[in-house]
Hints:
The chain has 40 residues and is mostly helical. 22% of the residues lie in helices and 0% in strands. It is globular.
Amino acid sequence: MPQRDIDPADLFLPPTEPIDITWMQAALAGTLPEDVDFPR
């Protein structure tokens, strides 16, 4: 099993928010909700 110290997906998630698939899909698509403070 490969060792995962840092999950690349974690870099796209706010540290205080749980992982949300819809949020991740929006982040990958470049269309984030307006209420999310995402550093460009």
